[in-house]
Design brief:
The chain is α+β, with helices and mostly antiparallel strands. The protein is 45% helix and 22% strand.
C-alpha cells in the first residue's frame, strides 16, 4: 500500500524543517573543528620560534623556521607579520570554505617579551571582544 499525496507532502515538509534547523548547527560545528587546524599551526610555529630563539639573537621568519605558510589541513594561510629580538606576531587567515567562519576568520598570536596575546576577528585587525576571542581560541 502506498502513501497518499498529502501524506507525502507532509513528510517532505517535516524533513525540510528538520534539515533547515540541523544545517546551521552542523556548519558551525564544522567551522569550529576546522579552526583547530589554525590553532595547531600557530602553536607549532610558537614552539619552533622558541627553539630558534634559544640558538639565535632574534626570532626567525617562516623560512628560517622551516614552517609552511599553510596550516596542516590547508584551511588557513599562515603569515609571520613581524619578528624581532623580543617578540613576533603570526596570523592565520581562513581560506576556502573556512572563510564562512566570519567571526573567527583571522587568528593572531603575538609574543611581546613575556606577554602572550591571542586575538581574533573578521578582518586582519583581529578586534573581537574578549568573550568572542576566547571562543575563537577554544578557551
Amino acid at each position: 500500500m502506498g502513501f497518499s499525496l498529502p501524506e507525502l507532502v507532509f513528510s517532505l515538509t517535516i524533513v525540510g524543517i528538520l534539515s533547515s534547523v540541523a544545517y546551521p548547527a552542523f556548519s558551525s560545528t564544522l567551522a569550529s573543528a576546522r579552526r583547530s587546524d589554525a590553532l595547531v599551526a600557530l602553536m607549532s610555529l610558537q614552539a619552533q620560534q622558541e627553539r630558534y630563539r634559544a640558538n639565535h639573537e632574534a626570532y626567525g621568519d617562516l623560512a628560517q623556521l622551516c614552517v609552511a605558510s599553510v596550516s596542516p589541513s590547508g584551511h588557513y594561510e599562515i603569515t609571520l607579520e613581524s619578528a624581532s629580538p623580543t617578540g613576533y606576531s603570526a596570523r592565520a587567515a581562513a581560506t576556502g570554505a573556512q572563510r564562512n567562519d566570519s567571526a573567527c576568520r583571522h587568528l593572531r598570536l603575538t609574543v611581546d617579551g613575556l606577554n602572550l596575546i591571542y586575538a581574533s576577528g573578521e578582518t586582519e585587525a583581529t578586534a573581537n571582544a574578549a568573550a568572542l576571542n576566547r571562543r575563537c581560541w577554544g578557551q
